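User: Here's a chain of 186 residues. Predict its fold as tokens.
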Amino acid sequence: MLPIRITGDSVLHTPSAAVTGFDQELRSLANDMVDTMLAAPGVGLAAPQVGVPLRMFVYRWVDDDLLTWQGVAVNPTLWQSPIPVSEPDEDEDSEGCLSLPGERFPLRRASSVRLSAVDLQGQPFEVDADGWLARIFQHEYDHLDGILYVDRLGAAHAKAAAKAIKRRNWAEPGLSWVPGEDHLED
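Assistant: Prediction complete.
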């Protein structure tokens, strides 16, 4: 299990570097990230969330048709449809993040995206995604640019998120948590 960094850690707020080495170390990192994501539990996990400033994320999601979408996206690019300008729905648009454990806030996202990336062998692939899979890709891609979803919240929800972060003393660097443990590490 890898420790998951909590908001406030500089690796979460800094754009990540491109992956250049497709070796056993990268494959081991990806495997450890998948294990950590599943244990958390989560549907996506970006390398910066485990303290590694590289442009890579893992994902696993089962859709309404019980199709499993899973993979590793290395050095991705993301094209998205326009984001609706209406207020987010408290239930349908509510999103969480393993770097803000236990908190959820509504955020409007594009309804469809195209993810282009390479796999762990450096082979290119593309995925066209709608709905929650599109949301997962946007969320994880943001992590690679040093953006947490709370950075994109509208004013009222941003204020609530800031209060939650302050209440939990998460504004300082060096905090993390390990899935399966009930406390945060310093």
